[in-house]
Write a structure and sequence with these properties.
The complex is a heterodimer. Chain A is α/β, with parallel strands linked by helices. In chain A, about 30% of the residues lie in helices and about 25% in strands. Chain A is built from 18 helices and 20 strands. Chain A has a six-stranded mixed sheet with strand order 6-7-8-3-9-10, sandwiched between helices. In chain A, strands 16-17-18-13-19-20 form a six-stranded mixed sheet, sandwiched between helices. A four-stranded antiparallel sheet of chain A has the order 2-1-4-5, with helices on one face. Chain B has one domain. Helices cover about 75% and strands about 5% of the residues of chain B. Chain B contains 13 helices and four strands. In chain B, strands 1-4 form a two-stranded antiparallel ribbon. A two-stranded antiparallel ribbon of chain B has the order 2-3. In chain B, strand 2 and strand 3 form a beta hairpin. The longest helix of chain B has 27 residues. Classes of the chains: A alpha/beta, B mainly alpha. The interface between A and B is medium-sized, with 32 and 23 residues.
């Protein structure tokens, strides 16, 4: 039996950054038409490997073969010309331009006699053809900022598959980095169907994810990285979830959700009929010491808005917020923090961290006034504050490293560390484990147990149902800015939470939409 | 990483001095170097405020006009036979108030700093022209002029003032909560706000610092010229931005040092002085200085890219 040369082969790839070897002799083989899952904890080297493939980084050693022939990828343009396309987690679209303009941004069709004048008709025709070809129902003329997240992702995929310029090859290798992290179930199904069509055409797809169900659902083969090394490449028919998790973490994670119930104490926080125009309507809830209150809901249900109101980042128009028995009126996050409320924001890069500052200075940021003497703030005191927290959270970095250089899981721990350093009793976690590897997830869960055991209360927003069901004492389900259902852990099931999130249960149908129609 | 970059600007300064020394031996005499330091002092002090503002991801175009306005207030106060201390206090207060207006419009008003300070640049200039009816105020007592002409040992007073300002500002930037918040706001304003930092207050203070620096520069300039001129300080904002940027501070905010800014100001001062010594026409000087700014930022960017 003869086997065709793999579409792409990476052999012995090595890449070191100052102080850390990110990749230490990694092999990766991609065949045309396969969906290849790439697994590994954050910091295992997945992103670095893909950045070498896309030409963003230069490798220190190793070789890359395309169709069996050795090539050097000189840079991003070179990678594009060789048919390698990467879709990063953060989308790279110009929101003010149309879908069609984004798709063909590097190669806008021009009117024949006038170089530089865009031929709009040809542009829209080509874009429409490409979108239809990919089975996407998106109007090529619509501005990208009018599109939902899933549709933007579709545009990004179309852009990746469109010829970047006349010279470049058709897409042969498509890398997708956690493409479903912000998608709803139906959108995920659309994406998977698209991936299947692309694979059927012979595109080799590298799919990076932390979700095990996706791995088995769409993958043919899987490669697991750990600490910059490849620990396994297997056919997915030949491995189990437990095996993969063990390979990634090198430890058994028999219990994903090590929930420990803490005794409930006094009421820490109460919301009474809280409303905020366009976001929240008549929200009432309470949180007790030792309790994890899960907040479920679809994207746009008002969960993040709720978190921001609790944390003083946004104001409420109506209703009362009661903290530890006394009504409060927050003028800003500082007031909420003074009352012992800390927010772990949804988007840690945009809202949680100052990337250029060190680990210690990020952790110390909310505590400047407490640490300083007459306005003078010694670095040593920041470091002294941060060091035990770094140890407790097992942050893999020294206090003096800029957080920019840390992996996602470690960055998230730094944001958590900001609140552990202070006198916080109400933790508001907005998607605490998004984009984080399995090992770090479990660490965050056990941290939640420690916090509730100490008498803290946690409001946890999550889009992952198993996590909500696994870690919450009670679950509040939101739908279009309202509370649709409140469920005890004992009575909550995936079906019940989901149907409430979809607005199917417990709603009085006449009142549910008021205030949200545009 | 910052060290490598700061080192780069220092090397640039040393190389520049070496070239000038070869071309004109007079350059490296003590009297000329003191002269350079004295001439650089005003831009260097204005650039301190600019560095604070740019570190916080802002910009202050009004510094030159504030120099003129604070100088004119100083001149009028001295002419009105106010005691020296009162006149100086009035001048400094003028700078702080102008800066606070900028800061409040930027922070509380939530307006882009470029627009706000473009407006106050015109307003402060107009105010300076209005109160003087466009005429310079000249002839001050020697007790005031000593602020520019005096020497401590052999070191000119403006150089001492610059050293004191840099030392104080450096301590403020690196050893105080205020300084930490300057970097944090420039690095990620929303994350800083969500950490409970009073972002608006500190932003207003940052522009007030810039106004104060302009006023200090105005005092030295007025003493040196023995005249307060409503058209003083033209283009100072561009010199200060240039010194800051040559010194390696990122216009995106959050990254940079005052030491870099000082070196940046010195590079500009040395260049002007050297070109004068060489008899280069002032027209050509503008071209050379513009080129140096662009090349310095280009080298800086390339250094940053190589670090990837």
């Amino acid at each position: 039996m003869t086997i065709a040369a793999p579409a792409l082969e990476m052999r012995g790839i090595r890449k070191a950054f100052p102080g850390v070897v990110a990749l230490d002799g990694v092999d990766l083989t991609l065949h045309a038409g396969e969906v290849h899952m790439l697994l590994g904890e954050n910091g295992a080297g997945k992103s670095t490997l893909m950045k070498i493939l896309s030409g963003a980084y230069a490798k220190d050693a190793g070789e890359i073969l395309i169709d069996g022939a050795r090539v050097e990828i000189a840079g991003p343009r070179d990678a594009l010309a060789r048919g390698i396309r990467v879709i990063y987690q953060e989308l790279n679209l110009v929101p003010q331009l149309s879908a069609a303009e984004n798709i063909f941004l590097g190669a806008l069709p021009t009117r024949a006699p006038f170089p530089g004048v865009v031929d709009r008709r040809a542009l829209h025709e080509r874009a429409a053809q490409l979108l239809a070809d990919l089975g996407m129902t998106i109007d090529p003329r619509v501005r990208v900022d009018r599109l939902g997240l899933a549709q933007r992702q579709m545009v990004e995929i179309a852009k990746a598959l469109a010829p970047a310029d006349e010279r470049s090859a058709a897409a042969r290798v498509l890398v997708m980095d956690e493409p479903t992290s912000a998608l709803t179930r139906r959108e995920v199904e659309q994406l998977f169907a698209l991936i299947a069509r692309l694979a059927a055409r012979g595109v080799a797809i590298v799919y990076i994810t932390h979700r095990m169900d996706e791995v088995f659902r769409i993958g043919r083969r899987v490669t697991v990285l750990r600490d910059g090394r490849r620990v396994a490449s297997r056919l997915l028919g030949e491995v189990t979830v437990a095996e993969l998790v063990r390979l990634m973490a090198n430890r058994d994670l028999s219990d994903h959700f090590p929930k420990v119930r803490a005794p409930l104490g006094a009421e820490l926080l109460r919301l009474e009929h809280v409303s905020r125009a366009g976001a929240l309507t008549d929200v009432s809830l309470s949180l007790h010491a030792g309790e994890v209150l899960g907040i479920a809901g679809l994207l746009g249900a008002g969960r993040t808005e709720l978190a921001r109101v609790i944390a003083g980042a946004d104001r409420c128009d109506n209703g009362r917020v009661v903290v530890a028995g006394s009504a409060v009126r927050f003028r800003g996050p500082a007031d909420a923090i003074a009352r012992g409320i800390g927010l772990l924001p949804e988007d840690r890069k945009a809202e949680g961290l100052v990337a250029g500052l060190t680990v210690a200075r990020n952790i110390a940021l909310p505590h400047g006034r407490r640490l300083a003497r007459a306005g003078f703030l010694a670095s040593a005191r920041e470091t002294a504050l941060a060091r035990p927290i770094g140890d407790e959270l097992r942050i893999k970095a020294t206090p003096t490293q800029p957080v920019r250089l840390l992996s996602g899981g470690n960055q998230q721990k730094v944001v958590l560390g900001k609140w552990l350093a202070g006198d916080v009793r109400v933790f508001v976690f907005d998607e605490p484990t998004r984009g984080i590897d399995v090992g770090s997830k479990v660490e965050i869960y056990t941290l939640m147990n420690r916090l509730t055991a100490r008498g803290a209360g946690i409001v946890m927003i999550s889009s992952e149902l198993p996590e909500l069901l696994g870690m919450s004492d009670r679950i509040v389900v939101m739908h279009r800015g309202r509370i649709q259902a409140q469920l005890d852990a004992a009575e909550a099931t995936e079906e019940r939470v989901l149907s409430a999130a979809l607005g199917l249960a417990g709603a009085s149908p006449d009142a549910s939409d008021r205030g949200f129609d545009r | 990483m910052n060290r490598a970059r700061r080192f780069g600007t220092v090397i640039g300064l040393v190389v520049l001095c070496a070239i000038l020394w070869i071309l004109t031996p007079y350059f490296l005499t003590v009297s000329n170097l003191l002269n350079v330091a004295e001439q650089t002092s005003i831009n260097a002090i204005v650039a301190v405020g600019m560095t604070f503002v740019i570190l916080s991801a802002g910009i202050d175009l009004s510094v030159g006009s504030i120099v003129a306005f604070a100088g004119v207030v100083l001149g009028l106060a001295l002419r009105g036979d106010q005691p020296l201390a009162v006149a100086l206090a009035l001048a400094l207060a003028t700078g702080v108030v102008c800066g606070l207006v900028n800061g409040l419009l930027v922070s509380v008003g939530d307006l882009p700093p470029f627009i706000v300070t473009l407006g106050t640049m015109s307003i402060a200039r107009g105010a300076a022209l209005l109160v003087t009816e466009g005429r310079p105020i000249s002839g001050f007592a020697p007790s005031f002029r000593v602020l520019a002409t005096g020497r401590v040992g052999f070191v000119p007073a403006p150089v001492i003032a610059t050293a004191v300002v840099y030392l104080a500002a450096h301590v403020a930037l690196t050893r105080t909560t205020f300084g930490r918040y300057v970097y944090a706001i420039g690095g990620n304003e929303e994350a800083t706000r969500l950490s409970g930092v009073a972002v608006r207050f500190h932003k207003a203070m940052i522009y007030a610092v810039s106004g104060l620096m302009s006023a200090i520069a105005a005092v030295i300039l007025t003493a040196r010229l023995n005249s307060a001129q409503p058209i003083a300080g033209m283009m100072y904002e561009l010199d200060a931005i240039a010194a800051t940027v040559i010194g390696g501070t990122s216009l995106m905010g959050g990254d940079g040092t005052l030491a870099g800014t000082l070196v940046g100001a010195l590079i500009m001062g040395v260049l002007r002085n050297g070109l004068n010594l060489l008899g280069v026409s002032s027209f050509l000087q503008q071209i050379v200085i513009g080129g140096v700014i662009v090349v310095a930022v280009l080298l800086d960017t390339m250094l940053k890219r190589n670090r990837m």
